[in-house]
Amino acid sequence: MSVKESPVKEIPVEGITYDQIKIEKIPATPAYIPRDARLIPAENRAVVINPGYTCMPLGAMLAVLGVRRAIPFVQGAQGCTTYVRYTFCRIFKEPAAIATASFHEDAAVFGGRRNVVEGIRNLVVRYWPEVIGVVTTCSSEIIGDDMVSFLKMARKRLRDEIGAEKEEAVAIVLINTPSFAGSHVEGYNRAARAFLETLATRRTRPNKKINIIPGLVYPGDIREIKHLLQEMEIVGTVLFDIADTLDAPLHPPQSLPYYPPGGTTLEEIREMANAAATFALQPEAGGAGARFLERRFGLPAVVGPMPVGVAATDAFVQALARFTGRGVPQSLLDERGRLVDAMADTFHHTMMKRVAVFGDPDTALGLTRFVCELGMTPVAVAAGTPTRTFGRAAQAIFAEYQHLFLDQPKIFNGGDLFEFEEYLKTLKRLDLIIGHSKGKDIAGELDVPLVRAGFPVYDRFGYQKKPIVGYRGAELLLYDIVNAILDYRYPDDRTQQL
Ligand code: SF4
C-alpha cells in the first residue's frame, strides 16, 4: 500500500506550536546591521572572528608543565608567554612558571641566538630545573633561528660556567611550534613527539607498563585515568601528568625555587621506550608521540578515541585488558552500571533535546558520541582546529545513531565560532550547547544553556578537578547536562518533566 493510500490520517497538532510563538530576535543595538550572508563562511573572509582555538606554543607549554621540575623556555617575545601564563592561571587557578627569551627589535632583526644562550644560562643558575622545554614562536620561526645550533652553544656556555656534570643533569627538549602552522592541539602533539624522540631513545629492558598520553585534558581527567589503571592493577606512565603540577595543594612554607609536586619524571619518560603499549587518548594531541614509539621500537599504539561516555570508555578498558592480560574488575563494572543507571534515570530529560557541540576535535567527537548515547539530537558539531579525519569520524558517529536525526547534523571542520553561531541562529530549535568557555557569549546570544566541557574552561571554579573521561566522568557530565536542562525555562510548547 502506498503512503497516499494509507488509512492513517495525519493527526493535527493542537495548540500553539513553537514556530508560531517564536518571536524574531530584536537586535541588541539599534545600529545593528544584518550580516552579509556571503561573509559568514570563514573561508570567504580574511579575518577570523571568535576563533575556536589558540596558539600552538600554548599546547606545548601545557605539556612541559606536566613534567617534574620542568620549565618551558619560550623563544619569542614576552607577549607570547604572558598571555599563556595568564590563560593557565585563569583555567587552573595555579601559578605557572614559564621563562621567555624576551625578544625585542634586535632579536627580531638579527635572530635570537644571544637570547637563548644567555636565557638558558640564567634559567639554570637561578632555578636549577631538571628539564627545559624550549618552545619556539612565530617570530623565531619566521626569522629562521637555527635552534639546534643555538642550543649546542647554550650547552657549551653552561658547561664552561657550571661544569659538565651539572650541565648534563639538565635535559633540554626542543619543540618547534610555529603558530601559523597549527593550533594549541598541534603544539601539544609536537611536544609529545619531541619529548619521546629526545628522551625515550633506547629500549633496554622491556617492562609491562602502559604509556598514557592523555591530551588536552584537566587534572581531574588524569586522576580518573589513573583510577581506571589502578582498579585494573595496571602500572602506567602518564606523559605530561598535570594532575598535581596544575592542581597543587598549598603547603607553606615552600622552598625556593618553587616547583609544584608531581609531574612525569625524566626517568619515567626515558622508560616509556620499554613499555608494552602506548595509549594516546586524543589522536590529534599526543598521537604523534604514540606513533613515534611504534615506528621506533614496535610498541603497539592505541590512538583514540577519547574515553568519553559508555562505548568509548568500554573500548579503552577492553584495550587495556587486552594488552595487559588483566580482567575488568567488578568495581569498574559497578561504575559502568551506575552510569547506565543514571542515563536511564534521566533519559526523559535528555532524549530528543537538540544540542550543538564544539571544541577541540577529539573532545568534540567524544562529546558527540556521548550525547548520542543519551538520546539527544546533535544539530551541529564543530572542531575549532580542522583535521583530516574530523568530518569522517563525525559522519561515522551519525551513521551509527541515524535513528536520532531527521536532518543530517551540520559539521564544521575548523572555521570559527562566528560561523558556528550564525548557523545556530538559523535553526528553529536549539536546546543546549556543549563546549568550552568561548561559547559563553554564543549561548547568551541564543538564550540557551551552555554546559562547559573541553579546553579551555576558565569561567568556572573547580571545573579542572572534574573529569569527563571514564565512567565516573561521564556520570558527572551527564548531571551537568541534565541540571542545565532543568534550570532552563524552555518555551511552553516543549514538554519538560520536572
Ligand atoms: S600566535 Fe605567534 S606571536 Fe601570537 S602569541 Fe602565539 S606564538 Fe606569539
Compact summary:
The protein is of the alpha/beta class and 498 residues long. It has helices spanning 18-21, 56-64, 78-92, 105-110, 113-127, 138-143, 147-162, 164-168, 184-199, 219-231, 242-245, 266-271, 287-297, 310-324, 330-350, 361-373, 390-400, 417-426, 440-446, 470-487; strands at residues 70-75, 99-100, 131-136, 171-175, 210-213, 236-238, 277-280, 301-303, 354-359, 377-383, 410-413, 432-435, 450-452. It is built from 20 helices and 13 strands.
β-sheet strand percentage: 5-15%
Counting DSSP H or I runs of 4 or more residues, the number of helices is 20
Low-confidence stretches: none
Q: Would you tell me the overall average pLDDT?
A: 92
Kindly give the count of domains.
Answer: 3
CATH topology of the largest domain: Rossmann fold
Say which molecules are bound, naming each kind only once. Answer: iron/sulfur cluster
What structural class do you assign from the helix and strand content?
alpha/beta
Spatial shape? globular
Helical residue percent? 40-55%
Task: Write the CATH architecture name of the largest domain.
Answer: 3-Layer(aba) Sandwich
The CATH class of the largest domain, by name, is Alpha Beta
Radius of gyration: 25 Å
